[in-house]
Write a structure and sequence with these properties.
This protein has four helices and eight strands. By secondary structure, it is α+β, with helices and mostly antiparallel strands. The protein folds into two domains: 11-87, RimP-like superfamily, N-terminal (GMP Synthetase, Chain A, domain 3); 97-166, SH3 type barrels (Roll), CATH 2.30.30. Strand 2 (42-49), helix 2 (57-74) and strand 3 form a beta-alpha-beta unit. The relative contact order is 0.14.
């Protein structure tokens, strides 16, 4: 692994192993896989274009058809299930090292599985990440280092600066 793949040892991890290589062949990257529900689970797949351009509804349709067939063949989910494919969006989750580094300077909310310095929720400016941990700077100026396996969820906060930074740029003629 190069630190850019979502990590999991659960059903999500098995699905990611099926989905990620197919997405790469299609010119996309896997951001996150989530499985919600038990009776008829919903598999949520979040993807980005590998070239950094905006993902389209047509892209999501193409991804859905391709990975649905792949999941059916490998059959890691017993019984019926539903597939949802989407872009990561502007206020996206931070699931990969490259996400933490790409969005350095922007605000994020981070929740940990266990208390770190007496708390489980942090809001601050993303400072980046390496293979081991992500870093954020709190409003107090304190820097917090959170190991990737300890992060329950991390998500960018929707701000004007983030909207401006992620807005589609017009193509040069």
């Amino acid at each position: 692994m190069d630190g850019n793949e979502p990590t999991s040892t659960t059903l999500e991890g098995k699905l990611a192993a099926i989905i990620a290589p197919r997405l790469e062949l299609m010119g996309f990257e896997l951001v996150r896989v989530s499985v919600l529900g038990r009776e008829r689970p919903t598999v949520q797949v979040m993807a980005d274009r590998a070239d950094g351009s905006q993902i389209t509804v047509e892209d999501c349709t193409q991804i859905s058809h391709d990975i649905s067939a792949a999941i059916d063949v490998d059959d890691p989910i017993p019984g019926a299930w539903t597939l949802e494919v989407s872009s990561a969006g502007i206020d996206r989750p931070l699931t990969r090292v490259k996400d933490w580094n790409r969005f350095a300077g922007h605000q994020a909310r981070v929740e940990t599985f266990f208390p770190l310095n007496g708390r489980k929720r942090f809001v601050g400016v993303v400072l980046g990440a390496d293979e081991e941990a992500a870093r954020i700077r709190l409003d107090t100026g304190a820097e917090v280092v959170i190991r990737h396996p300890d992060i329950r969820r991390a998500k960018l906060v929707l701000t004007d600066a983030l909207i401006e930074a992620t807005a589609a740029k017009p193509l040069a003629n």
